[in-house]
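cron nightly-structures :: item 1 of 1
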Amino acid sequence: MLIEGMFAAITTPFYADERLYLRKLEANVARYSRSLLAGMVVLGSTGEAVELNDAETREALRTAADAAAPEKVLIAGVARESVKATVELAEYAAECRFDAVLVRTPTYYAPQMTKAAVLHFYRSVADRSPLPVLLYNIPKFVPYPIPVEVVAELAQHGNIVGIKDSTGDVERVRALVAATQSAPRRTVTVTPVFEAVTARMLSAKTEPEGNFVSAAELGGGAAVAVKAPPAPMKTRTKEVGFQVLAGSAGSLLESLEVAAAGAVLAFAACAPQACQEVYLAWKDRDLALAAEKQQRITAASQRVAGALGIAGIKYACDFNGYYGGRPRAPLLPLNAEEKAEVERLLAGIRN
């Protein structure tokens, strides 16, 4: 699977009584689908995945997949504390036609998460997952930061295709890219303009369209209206290696410059266009413009996403026309002073 470009780590909306607000999730996903983002991560850290039970997780995954445009790459956060539970959610994500799964290291038995245990966990998940696996390194939430040498070993697995690294450390991103150069290269299906071909795009092309009456039916004296076979989808292939995705908007441009394939950003949940503009300017090799666009988002992303966290991102979503709402307890919403600060920071970053 080709996983490159900008991805929004989207939020999970709740009613005031903390039930899932699936209609708002649908609306958010539909709006992200009209952006230039490459795709979305559903139920990552920004999606409060650890706050949802398994039934809610499945509801959220299904709702998001049904609402997303076919061309958007969808990545499902499926991590649980056991291999078995993680694989079960990966299987469900595949049923919903997600394109990859994002898996963090188990946290509860952190003292026992040795190098051997971490290698065994990820390899076991990857062996059984029907979808490609992205490693998820986020040390501020997970006590075990995945060492570069462990990532290099895991990158040799045929079903582990990349990592989201949320340290914000550009030198670590550089080291990850260098350490995984020897990982197996994969032939992936892409569009004629080298964009990702998703599971939902392929599924749509297998469904007949229009009314069609076959010659055999006419010859038999009974004309039956059936759907015509779909036109074949034009695709080509591309060779890709292990894909390193940055997880910090504040160091986005620097990460791209050291060969990150893209980024999964919480700040893109509330400001997708502003994040995308950095990437597009970089792709065009207009580094002066890219630096200007990066400067525009650096302070806001560090404060809103980095310091204020889920509540900050959710309020920023409300301010920018998406539905954020309140986080689920025990997380607290922003106070009036913090809301005013978010509004000041986003005054020039509207979507």
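cron nightly-structures :: done
The chain has a mean pLDDT of 94.
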